[in-house]
Amino acid sequence: MKPYTIGVDVGGTNIKLGLVDRSGAIAARAFLDTKSFYGSKKKLIDVIIGAVRDLIEEKRLASKDILGIGLGLPGPIDSKRGIVNFLPNIPGWKNVPLKSIVQKKLHIPTVVDNDVNLITLGEWKFGAGKNYKNLMCMTLGTGVGGGLILNGALYRGEGFVAGELGHMPLNEKGPDCNCGGSACFEYYVGNGYLLKKAAKIFKNKNIQLSDVFFLAKQGNARAIEFWEEAATHIGNALVGVVNLLNLRLIVIGGGVSNNYQFLGKTINAVIRRRAMKVQAKMVKIVRAKLGNDAGIMGARVLVKESIRER
Ligand SMILES: [Zn+2]
Fold this sequence. Notes:
The protein has helices spanning 41-58, 98-106, 115-126, 185-189, 191-201, 209-217, 221-245, 260-274, 277-282, 294-309, and strands at residues 4-10, 14-20, 26-33, 66-73, 77-78, 83-86, 94-96, 110-114, 135-140, 144-150, 153-154, 249-253, 284-287.
C-alpha cells in the first residue's frame, strides 16, 4: 500500500497542509494565508495545488507515492461528488467541483469534505476521541462548528450538512445571523462577539482574546467572569445536544478552547445542573488534543475510507 496521504485544511484565515507518512506522523508541513487569495477562486485553488506539489517534492516523492489527498473547507460540501456548495467566509465560491479540478491537475485520488468533519475524524481516530463510538467535536473560533460520530461513523445527514451546532438557536428571539436564522449559538460565543464584548469591558478596542486569557491567568476577576459567561452559553447549548444524542464524549477544539482552564468547570457545571440525569452522568467533556493537526489527520482517515469503498 502507498504509505503517504496529504491533508489540506482550508480555514477563513489560513490554510494548513501536511504530508502524513505510513507511521501516521506528519513528515512535512506548509502554511498559507487565505486572505491574500480572497476574491480569486482560481488563484486559491492554484496556490493549494502548488503547495501540494512542493510538499511532494520536498520529500522527493512522486504522485504515485501518494494514496490520496483530503481537503477540508469551511462550508457545506457535497462530499459524495466532491463539490463545494459555497463558503460563507470566503467570497467567490459557488458549486465548485473541487475534487475533479484537483484530481485532473495532480493525478492523485482526492476527497473533499467540510473542515469540521475532518477535524472530528482526526480527533476521533488519533486524538481525544480514540475508542469512542458516540461523540461530538465542537470547534470554537470565528465560527462555531460541530462534527458528529454516531454509532462509530461520521454522521453527515441527508444533504451532507449535519452538525451545524453554531446555528442552533440559543434563545427564541435574538440578533439576526448570517445563516438566515436568529439568536444562533455562534452569535453568543463566536470570536466576533467575544472581541466586541471584551473591548467594551476592558475599554480597549484592540484587545485580543489571548489578552483576556492572560488577564484571567493573572487572577483578574472581570476576565475570569468573561470566560465563565462564555462557558455558561456553551454549557446551555450543549445541554440540548446531550439530551438529544446521549453522547459519551464532547471534544472542544478551536482557538477559544485555548482558554479551556477557565471554561471547562462552568461548562460541566451547567450540563450537570440542566441536562437529564442519565445523559449528564454519561457524558465527558474534554479539550481537543491535536490542535492544528486535527484536519490533516482527519484527511488521512477520509482518504483511507474512500479507498476502501472503491
Ligand atoms: Zn446562524
